[in-house]
Input
Amino acid sequence: MAAVTRRPSPRYAAPPVEPTVAPTLRTLSLGAGVQSTMLLLLSALGELPPLDAAIFADTGWEPRAVYDHLDRIEREVARPAGIPILRVSSGNIRNDALDPTHRFASMPLYVLNQDGTPGMTRRQCTGEYKIKPIKRQVRELLGYPYPARIPRDVFTEQWIGISTDEFHRAKSADVKYTRNRFPLIELGLSRNDCLALLAEHGLQSTPKSACLGCPYHGNRQWRALRDGSPDEWRDVVEFDAAVRAGNARANASGNRLLGQAFLHRSRVPLSIAPIDHVTRGELLEQQVPLPLDEEEAEYGPADGCSPYSCRSGSAADPLDN
Output
């Protein structure tokens, strides 16, 4: 793919309305998935305003495909347009989960309780490993690192990659120095629209963005790891076995999980989980509609896994700094 060239005017009929108060900065929460890549591309093409920075929160355990894609869009899209991609981190989520001396923000693991009933652990990882480092970086960019008080008229307009098919996830920021904006919704673009435009620019291989061992993976993603990336598959299988009793810090402090934890929704070890149980292709060949629960089991929840639209469907624990 050649470097993108800026276009002189928007190609869409309804460009976003500019805010009445100019932001101090314009930043993108870059998950390196479909929707956030689309926003980066639209800014680079000149169809959205210039970005001051795109911020990628690295959990330390992203799929190799995500890191490769991030390198590519930095080289071919962001850098030619003068958009810096800033990589920030709060640590390595995999290592932290297995370190008994490290405070760990829990992942949403599937739990089989002692009485046989299903459950899930709390999802704190998005707030700790995605939202927190982005907020820290925004403060630095604005010139007011924590705990400095930020003047009311100093703020970033933060673009978030939420498309029309997941508009219900669009929420206001929980801090005054950030004002969330959702350009894809303003432009009336769905995920499929994003895929089509990315394909026009040779970016049809844009991956889904999520941690390597995210419990919200669907069977298709688990199969892709098993069949296409044996080393990463071995890694997540080992992690799944290692967290059977919950995270190491809780166990070390005597707060043991009353049951067993798993990465796969079936609540059996990932190495033997039924990830081949149903495929969309087989059902389409039989012209059988895919039931909603099996659609999610196969592909994972439909919504994305960017820092501000995690697939769990519930809001991340707020972090006010």
Summary: Residues 311-319 have pLDDT under 50 and may be disordered. The two ends are 40 Å apart (CA to CA). The chain is about 35% helix and 10% strand.
